Amino acid sequence: MKGCQAKDIETLAALKVLVAAKYPRWTSLVEAFPNMPAKVCLAKYRKLMTAQLIDGCDCGCSTVAEITQKGREWIASSLMAGL
Ligand SMILES: [Zn+2]
After folding, report:
1. Distance 71 CA to ligand 1 centre (A)
2. Ligand 1 centroid to 75 CA: how many Å?
3. 38-50 vs 11-20: helix axis angle to the nearest 10?
4. Which fold does the domain 10-80 belong to in CATH?
5. In angstroms, what is the span from residue 8 Cα to ligand 1's centroid?
6. How does residue 81 score in pLDDT terms, banded at 50, 70 and 90?
7. CA of 82 to the centre of ligand 1 (A)
8. 8, 33, 54, 83: which has the fewest Cβ within 10 Å?
């Protein structure tokens, strides 16, 4: 995968990773997308927070994130739309 921007990680893919993780953290994205630079994964994580799809801390610490109700609805509607 080419590109080094947060938008290069699909929101649905990122959310799925966080939903599936036992302890969802921004580093879960680093593990799930090993070909993406860590700073890009953190940027994506912050975008998910800005969009209120997840609840957590965006400073780069190891605080565990929570998928918000909005995030769960977003996943459900994306799956229904066949994205
Ligand atoms: Zn923090």
Report:
1. 20
2. 25
3. 90
4. Arc Repressor Mutant, subunit A (1.10.10)
5. 24
6. confident
7. 34
8. 83
Q: How many Å lie between the centroid of ligand 1 and the Cα of residue 56? A: 8
Three-state DSSP class for residue 74? helix
CA dihedral for 56, 79, 8, 22, sign (positive or negative): positive
List the domain boundaries for the chain: 10-80
Q: What is the pLDDT of residues 13-72, one digit of tens each?
A: 999 999 999 999 999 999 999 999 999 999 999 999 999 999 999 899 999 999 999 999
Q: Give the global pTM.
A: 0.90
Instruction: Using alpha carbons, list the distances in angstroms from residue 75 to 35, 38, 40, 45.
Output: 24, 24, 21, 15
Would you say the C-alpha torsion 81, 53, 24, 32 has a positive or negative sign? positive
